[in-house]
Amino acid sequence: MRTRPLKVALLGCGVVGSEVARIMTTHADDLAARIGAPVELAGVAVRRPSKVRAGIPQELITTDATALVKRGDIDVVVEVIGGIEPARTLITTAFEHGASVVSANKALLAEDGQNLYAAAEQHGQDLYYEAAVAGAIPLIRPLRESLAGDKVNRVLGIVNGTTNFILDKMDTSGAGYSEALDEATALGYAEADPTADVEGFDAAAKAAILAGIAFHTRVRLDDVYREGMTEVTAADFASAKRMGCTIKLLAICERAADGGSVTARVHPAMIPLSHPLASVRGAYNAVFVEADAAGQLMFYGPGAGGSPTASAVLGDLVAVCRNRLNDATGPGESAYTQLPVSPMGDVVTRYHISLDVADKPGVLAQVATVFAEHGVSIDTVRQQGKDGEASLVVVTHRAPDAALSGTVEALRKLDTVRGVASIMRVEGE
Ligand SMILES: NC(=O)c1ccc[n+]([C@@H]2O[C@H](COP(=O)([O-])OP(=O)(O)OC[C@H]3O[C@@H](n4cnc5c(N)ncnc54)[C@H](OP(=O)(O)O)[C@@H]3O)[C@@H](O)[C@H]2O)c1
C-alpha cells in the first residue's frame, strides 16, 4: 500500500459534508485498504468558521474555498455546498489545479453538466456525482457502467422523498395536501419553503441527469416538462383507488417508440397498485429501469439524509482515488447519440379525467364526441349523478399529450361541462 496519503478538500460541511467527514475519519483504515492508499482530509471550506463541528480539527476549517482548491496538492475535491455559484467556479478551478471532483449537486449537474464534463476532460480529471440523484441508491454508476452494454428504454422514478412522504400520507390516512405537508414539515421531511420539492423542481433536475445518462444524450433542466403535486386532492386518491391505483410524483424518461427522440417529464401520475413503485412508502426513493436485454430493474433505498447521501459520496471518493492511483480516469460524458428531446405534447400515455357536468340526457354523448374529434379513444366512463349535477370520470386509451390538451380545451367550452375537476396521467401499465 502507498503510504503517502491522497488529499481531499471538503467544500461544505452541512448535512452531507459533516457525515462525509465523519465516515472518512471512522472508516479511515478500511478506506485506505480498499483504495490502496490512505486518504487525508486536507481542508474543509464552510461559510461560518466559528460553528462547532464535531470531529473536525479547527485548523482544517477555512472560509476561503477558492484558496483551498487552488492549493495544488489536493487530489480530490468533494463539493457538498450545493447551488450554482460558487460551486460551479470552485469545481472548474479544482480541475484547473489538478484535482478530480466528487459532487452531490443535482442543481448544478442538471444546469451545466456538459461544461463541467468538458472541463474535467480538458484537465484529465474525474467528475463523479452518484449522490446527486436518489441519495444512497446506486443509480448513476449502474446506468453509466453496468448497463453500458445494454439499451435503456425507460426510467421511471420516485426521486423526491418529501413528495413521496406527502402523497403516501394522503393515500394511507385520507389527509388533504396541506395536512400531509404540515406533518412532513413537523417531522423534518419538508423544508420551511417546500417549493423545490412540491413543485417538482428537484425531481426535474434529477430527471435531466438520469435521461442524459440513460440515453447517452444531453438533456438540460429546461428540456424537462414539470408539474408539481400541490393540486392532488383526496378525491384524486379516491378515484385512483377505484381504479386499483395509487398516485406518485414520477420522474419519467423515455425513448420514443421509433428510437429517434427522448422525453423527460415530472408530474403526479396514477400507477397500478401491482407496479413495484406503488409500494414505495414514506420518504423512500425508487427508480424502475427498463432495458432491452436486462428487462426490468428496480433500485430502492433512502434518497436523502446526511448519512445515506455521504455513503454515495464516499463510494465515488473511493472510485476516484483508485483511478488516480492508476493514473486513469473513469467514464466521462457519453452524449454521442445526440437524440433530440421532444416536447410534452408528443408524449403518449393514458389519462384519467374527472368532469363536473350537468345531469341531463345527451351529455355523455356530447363529451364522447369531443374525445373522438381529437382522436382520443375512451377506455372506460363512470357517471355519478347528484342534485341535477353529475360527475363523469373518463379513462382513455393511450394518446398524445397534445391531443388530450386539445380535448380538455374543447370540453371546457361545452355548456354542459361545469368544470374539469382533475386530469391525471396513468403510468406504469
Ligand atoms: N441533504 C440531503 O439529504 C442531500 C441529498 C442528496 C444531495 N444533496 C446535495 O448535497 C449538497 C449539500 O447539501 P446539504 O444538505 O449538506 O446542504 P447544507 O446542510 O446547507 O450544507 C451546505 C454547506 O456548505 C457550506 N457553504 C455554503 N456556502 C458556502 C460558501 N460560499 N463557501 C464555503 N462553504 C459554503 C455551508 O457552510 P456553513 O456550515 O458554515 O453554513 C454548509 O456547511 C447539495 O448540493 C444538495 O443538493 C443533499
Number of helices: 14
Radius of gyration: 24 Å
Percentage beta strand: 25-35%
- What is the overall shape? elongated
Task: Describe the structure in brief.
This protein has 14 helices and 17 strands.
Task: Characterize the structure shown.
- The protein is elongated.
- Strands 7, 8, 9, 10, 11, 12, 13, 14, 15, 16 and 17 form an eleven-stranded mixed sheet that branches.
- The chain has helices at residues 15-26, 28-35, 65-69, 87-96, 106-122, 140-146, 161-173, 177-186, 195-198, 201-215, 234-242, 306-325, 363-373, 401-413, and strands at 6-11, 39-45, 61-62, 76-79, 100-103, 127-128, 152-158, 225-226, 245-255, 262-272, 284-291, 295-302, 348-358, 378-386, 389-396, 399-400, 417-426.
- 45% of the residues are buried.
- It is an alpha/beta fold.
- Helix 4 (87-96) links the parallel strand 4 and strand 5 (100-103).
- The longest helix has 20 residues, at 306-325.
- The termini are far apart.
- The structure holds NADP nicotinamide-adenine-dinucleotide phosphate (NAP).
Write the layout of secondary structure elements.
Blueprint: E1 6-11, H1 15-26, H2 28-35, E2 39-45, E3 61-62, H3 65-69, E4 76-79, H4 87-96, E5 100-103, H5 106-122, E6 127-128, H6 140-146, E7 152-158, H7 161-173, H8 177-186, H9 195-198, H10 201-215, E8 225-226, H11 234-242, E9 245-255, E10 262-272, E11 284-291, E12 295-302, H12 306-325, E13 348-358, H13 363-373, E14 378-386, E15 389-396, E16 399-400, H14 401-413, E17 417-426
Parallel strand pairs: 1-2, 1-4, 2-3, 4-5, 5-6, 8-10, 10-17
Antiparallel strand pairs: 7-9, 7-11, 9-10, 11-12, 13-15, 13-16, 13-17, 14-15
Helix pairs in contact: 1-12, 4-5, 5-10, 7-8, 13-14
